[in-house]
Amino acid sequence: MVKKVDTVVLDTLKERLKEIFGYSQFRGEQEVIIQNILLGKNTFVIMPTGAGKSLCYQLPALVSDGLTIVISPLIALMKNQVDQLTAFGINAQFLNSTLTKSEMTRVKNDALDGSLKLLYIAPESLTKEDNLDFLKKVKIAFVAIDEAHCISEWGHDFRPEYRRIYGIIENIGDLPIIALTATATPKVQQDIRKNLQMEEAETFKSSFNRKNLYYEIRPKKDTKKQLIRYVRNNKGKSGIVYCLSRKTVEEVAELLSVNDVRALPYHAGLDSNTRMSNQDAFLNEDCDVIVATIAFGMGIDKPDVRFVIHYDVPKSLEGYYQETGRAGRDGLEGNCLMFYSYDDIQKLEKFNKDKTVTERDNARHLLNEMVAYSTLGACRRRQLLSYFGEYLDKDCGFCDNCMHPTEKTKVQDEVVLVLRAVQQTEQRFDGEHIADLITAKDNQYVRSYEHDKLDVYGKGLEMNESRDYWISVIRQLVIFNYLEKDIENYGVMKIGEKGLSYINDPYPITLHKDHNFDEEDVKAEDEDKEGNAGGSAHAYDETLLGMLKALRKKVAKEKNLPPFVIFQDPSMEEMATTYPTTQQEMAQINGVGMGKVQKFGKQFIELISRYVEENDIETAKDVVIKSTVNKSKIKIFIIQQVDRKVSLDEIAEVKALPLADVIEEVEHICYSGTKLNLDYYINQVIDRERQQDIYDYFMTAETDNIAAALDEFSDDEISEEELRLVRIKFLSELAN
Ligand code: ADP
Ligand code: ZN
To answer: Which residues make beta-bridge pairs with 339?
Structure first.
């Protein structure tokens, strides 16, 4: 059922994106997805939380004739989305059991007269007879089914009403469907397609890699102290602390409160008023930290959560991934910390004792994966992605295992042995069995399959390694894709192409030792992740940003909206960088369209204008701002480029500036307190000995004056540039 669509519509999507939502770029596959649904084709979207699924149906809804129906499972989620759309000046409404009769009539009238663009509706309401009659009268563009995994019994969030959706849609008319979910197991995908009768639909599955999230696991020792220190180090930032039981939630919330953290509890045992008001306090920034059971979070679309802490070990990696996914949805900072102890695993195991055998087995598998993830020394991101069926060919460099690695070893014969053992047992056994076999464990299965007759039998013992060691090797080989997991049979190991070619042509690969959390010490201080990553200084004007945030909070209160609905953090940071003082300039900010400018812009523009006036800031577009307090565009550009290790010569060339001017800018940046790591460049242009001489000189000199330094080195043919560069290094390392 391919629709004829005006190609102008397809070609101008990007302009509409900017105009309506204020974004200048589509993210990932958003544009092709939107085109696909606009062409009237069924569309299946699998994207992790925070990747931008909503836009995939919101934008096409706005450029289509007629109404778009959005089926969504949670009332809280609907309200949130409708609030956000309304803030963009879009006519969106929801239809659910919370509406009064007259509200219901108004919504229906808006739909019938064509002014309503998006209608959010719960599956329960969709099945109501009179709603159905009404929908048959409305011109409908397409249907979006959010959280589509609720259709599947194999998912972790099955909702029987979801199974009836297709029948109803069919009843309304021949409508294209876009189904969206963040849960990606192959089994659930298959179920969704079948149930919605869209086996032919094109699937758009994007990477589950959330690059801005930092994953970290610490031993669960001195946990209270660690927690308080961590939260204090993140003062004023939004965070979620997940605990397993209501009791722990209460205790931890209390603990944080008495330690001057604005924290509130959230769990299903609280009465619904308290629960709602605590949730609102969190959304409205009246509280920084919410301490919660996993009851909290589904449908909470707060983009600026800066940390998610698992105080207790979660039941599954699915849960862990979903909960950590609530951090950094705006693409900025997102820290995910989990406290691990094997005691927690045993506790969780006890909870399962009343379950049926199959349920218990399943729960145990999930816990095993949790243990493996926590204890393996391999890159966390590679582990997580591998679990969701995605393979990353390099370590991420941005997780605790990458930044503080456990002991590494190069192995080759060991890998060949494991792969051959899998091969010789015909790829029909799990990792435990393989480990038993190569360590010659006296076990009935090994004997009954006559695996003790294989030439790999006992070879692992001869290499003097324990069964645990081999389990760790096998798990790492899965993560690195030398071994593959069988989808049909849990735990069974297969050899893929990569493994096969390895056997024929092996080479040394690096494996990591497992963590031993009983021995690992609690870190004395929270280490600075950014220190290594090469200075990620703020480019924005912090004073102004503070003022903008205060204003946003006030406006949010007045309008009774969460602050991020007004403007999101990345937009505010940009405002505090480019100082927009007119409506047009404001509309240029990422995430701010004209709709938003007209709705909320006035007070912000006034605030910025006043600030600019009082502080004598030049804002003319391309003029370099000369003041040292405020960082101009060129400074931001330099900071970004230095972060990417671009040479100063190249920066100078791109900006058509003499190198000396670039160095001068760098000096300004440094003198105003920003740490810049220029080592990559300095090491390239000045030899180490010379560097050391200059460095030593500044260490003992009375002044950092360049003329004095030139004088001192007058015999050594050291240039002013060299002196300046080393002085920057010196100041960055010692003064900032
Ligand atoms: P999901 O539903 O996939 O969890 P959302 O639709 O809530 O994610 O989007 C997450 C965040 O990304 C939102 O704050 C949204 O405004 C933002 N976003 C979506 N698309 C874009 C884009 N093209 N450019 C910039 N930000 C975007
Ligand atoms: Zn990593």
So the answer is: 218
- Please give the average per-residue pLDDT across 508-516, as a whole number: 95
Ligand 1 pocket test: pick from 329, 571, 589 the residue with the most ligand atoms within 8 Å of its Cβ. 329
Q: Is 52 in the pocket of ligand 1 (CB under 6 A)?
A: yes
Architecture of the domain whose range is 408-512: Orthogonal Bundle (1.10)
- Determine whether the shortest distance from the Cβ of 147 to ligand 1 is under 6 A: no
* Residue-range domain boundaries for the chain: 7-205, 213-388, 408-512, 540-623, 633-734
Residue 690 region by backbone torsions, left for phi larger than 0, else alpha for psi between -120 and 50, else beta: alpha
For the ranges 194-198, 406-410, 518-522, the lowest mean pLDDT is seen at: 518-522
Q: Mean pLDDT throughout 221-242?
A: 92
Best of 24, 211, 301 for a ligand 1 pocket test (most atoms within 8 Å of beta carbon): 301
Phi, psi of 456 (to 5 degrees): -80, -10
> How many Cβ atoms are within 10 Å of 199's Cβ, its own excluded?
10
Q: What is the mean pLDDT of residues 407-411?
A: 94
Summarised one tens digit per residue, pLDDT across range 12-68 is 999 999 999 999 899 999 999 999 999 999 999 999 877 899 999 999 999 999 999
Residues facing 180 on adjacent strands: 45
- Rounded to whole angstroms, how far apart are CA atoms 303 and 327? 8
Q: Per-residue pLDDT averaged across 303-332, rounded? A: 92
Q: What pLDDT is attached to residue 624?
A: 27
Could you check whether 408-512 and 633-734 share the same CATH topology? yes
Q: Is residue 445 very low, low, confident or very high in pLDDT (cuts 50, 70, 90)?
A: confident
Angle at 519 between CA 513 and CA 523, to 5 degrees: 95
Rounded to the nearest angstrom, the distance between the alpha carbon of 701 and the centre of ligand 2 is: 42
What's the rounded Cα separation, in Å, for the pair 709 and 701?
Answer: 8
pLDDT-derived band of residue 375, with 50, 70 and 90 as boundaries? very high
Task: Give the ligand 1 atom nearest the CA of 26.
Answer: 23
Q: What are the C-alpha distances in Å from 441 to residues 311, 459, 461, 523, 711?
A: 37, 11, 10, 38, 76
Q: Does the beta carbon of 562 lie inside 6 Å of ligand 1?
A: no
- Asked if pLDDT for residue 508 goes beyond 70, the answer is yes
- 509: enclosing H helix or E strand: strand 509-512
CATH superfamily of 7-205: P-loop containing nucleotide triphosphate hydrolases (3.40.50.300)
Predicted local distance difference test score (pLDDT) of residue 674? 67
Q: How many angstroms separate the CA atoms of 334 and 188, rounded? A: 28
Would you say the pTM of this structure is higher than 0.85? no
CATH code: domain 213-388 is 3.40.50.300
Architecture of domain 540-623: Orthogonal Bundle (1.10)
- Nearest CA residue ID for atom 24, ligand 1: 23
The answer, yes or no, to whether any atom of ligand 1 lies below 6 A from the CB of 328, is no
Q: If 0-12 CB within 10 Å is exposed, 13-18 middle and 19+ buried, where does residue 507 land?
A: exposed
